[in-house]
Amino acid sequence: MLDPVAFTVGPFSIRWYAICIVSGLILAVYLAMKEAPRKKMIPDDILDFILIAFPLAILGARLYYVIFEWSYYGKHSLIEIFQIWNGGLAIYGGLITGALVLYFFSQRRLINPVDFLDIAAPSVLIAQSIGRWGNFFNQEAYGAVVKNLNYLPSFIRNNMYIDGAYHQPTFLYESLWNLLGFALLMILRRRSKFFRQGELAAFYLIWYGFGRMIIEGMRTDSLMFLGVRVSQWLSAALILLGICIMIYQRKNKPPIIKNERRILCLKLLIL
Question: For binding a 1,2-diacyl-sn-glycero-3-phospho-(1'-sn-glycerol), which residues are annotated in this chain's numbering (predicted)?
Fold first, then answer.
């Protein structure tokens, strides 16, 4: 079993879970800032958004998890709510919080939220792909018992030996699925005739929603609501929303909200 703690600094323990999340975030921000000028958007807007949204998304992801696990947290010390290394975070809570932050951020900065989401789509997928490895180090978010995992490298196989049995490495399946989606978006987004405005974001919703719905069915630690996994409810909603966006954009001309005007105004103010 791998140690979930990477190293310690004095009394503080730095966990692999945090390293995976932060590594994914750094790469995502870098890629989004590189892409921003192509959408006539100021790269600093990406960084400013992350500085606001990331801590709030962590809180939202934890709150989401605690709400659906209140049967446990309601009977234990409230201090455990703040121990995010115990129980973890729920990605959908982070996505919902991020969407709310983007709404208010785009209004204040006068940016086009649709273009922002198109820029962010591949970056979010690669961040999620890397972040899932945090579940691997924590030995969580795994699937049902299997006889063997001989098709996997020994370090993965050994860490998936939990409670005397091998388990499906669902973290790996989702990580690879997100990585494939990232690669597709990076290739296709350069083809302006293939995707219309908003459709990169729609592709993300459909791709991630479909993969998460299938993989979630393999897990044994899912949050439940009305007898169905909560993430599967939300995955279905993401797929439906993505399809609706695709249909709408194909039937209607995408709205034109130009960021060139804002960039020109900022340059004039600087001069």
Answer: 132
